[in-house]
Design brief:
There is one protein chain. This protein is about 35% helix and about 15% strand. Helix 9 links the parallel strand 7 and strand 8.
Length: about 290
């Protein structure tokens, strides 16, 4: 995977290359770019698809000890990623975390289209039982370390109170190991994750929602039809706040929409981009000759 140096540290990212429309895929806590594998495969022929590995649990490179890894800090790193690669007219797609919402009205100049799929929003933060357990564990001495030990055992990780409540499809042991291996083997990665968890502001996304009506570019809210963690009512409220948004439910999907039903999500993304082409560039002014002709 290519890598890029950001202010908080070095992150890895996937880049399909090509000169098609740019799509950037952002994952949630304790997942990495692999959660988007099916969507990347479906978009690759016609789009340039990038998926950064954000430093929120499944990253392989620890960040600087003083890095801001709060939700706002991670959003700032996502914006910095777009800047450093000079990505323009981006279709930004977010899953699970609400990070992309924090850029609206703040650092959204590179975003041409916004897609939110089953994510933290409004008053659903921390989200669901899983989010509340994680928050409590991160505030107890040794609590986060003990909680993470359950992910050594796929059967425990697949329980409804854990990853099993986020995905409808069965999660293979190797994927669970990929996502949670860094947290289980690296003290520095656990430090980064704990910093992210402890920086949680319960009002974070309620405050961010005040800026959503200012986003006048196209938006798509694509929610898992069987989501148990992110209520569908939250998705519908998000779509109502975004002036040019369409709400759609992805069948056979819970929170991990890109993992559960990548084909349906890919089809919606293709339709969304096709329905909202970029404005044609303005023609360059005619140059006059030296004689004024």
């Amino acid at each position: 995977m290519p890598e890029i140096e950001l202010s908080a540290g070095t992150i890895d990212y996937e880049d399909s290359g090509g000169d098609g429309p740019v799509v950037v895929l952002a994952h949630g806590p304790a997942f990495d770019a692999s959660v988007w594998a099916g969507v990347v495969a479906g978009l690759r022929p016609d789009f340039r698809v990038l998926a950064p590995v954000l430093p929120i649990g499944s990253h392989r490179r620890p960040m600087r000890p003083d890095a801001d890894l709060s939700a706002h800090g991670v959003a700032a790193l996502l914006a910095e990623f777009l800047d450093r690669l000079d990505l323009r007219d981006v279709t930004l797609v977010q899953n699970d975390a609400g990070t992309a919402q924090l850029l609206v009205g703040v650092r959204d100049e590179r975003i041409a289209r916004l897609v939110l799929t089953s994510c933290e929003a409004l008053d659903n933060y921390p989200p669901g039982t899983q989010g509340r357990i994680l928050r409590r564990a991160s505030r107890l001495p040794g609590g986060l370390f003990l909680l993470l030990q359950s992910f050594r055992f796929p059967a425990l990780a697949r329980m409804p109170m854990s990853l099993g409540g986020m995905a409808k499809r069965r999660l293979p042991a190797e994927l669970i190991a990929r996502w949670y291996g860094p947290l289980l083997t690296s003290r520095d990665i656990r430090r980064d994750f704990a910093t992210f968890c402890r920086g949680l502001d319960p009002d974070c996304y309620r405050k961010a929602a005040r800026n959503l009506p200012s986003f006048t570019r196209p938006a798509l809210v694509a929610w898992g039809a069987e989501d148990r963690m992110m209520p569908r009512a939250t998705g519908r409220r998000l779509a109502e706040l975004l002036p040019h948004a369409r709400y759609v439910e992805i069948p056979d999907a819970r929170t991990l929409v890109p993992y559960d039903n990548p084909a349906a999500l890919t089809a919606e993304l293709r339709r969304f981009v096709a329905e909202h082409p970029l404005p044609a560039p303005e023609p360059a002014p005619e140059r006059r000759s030296a004689s004024g002709q």
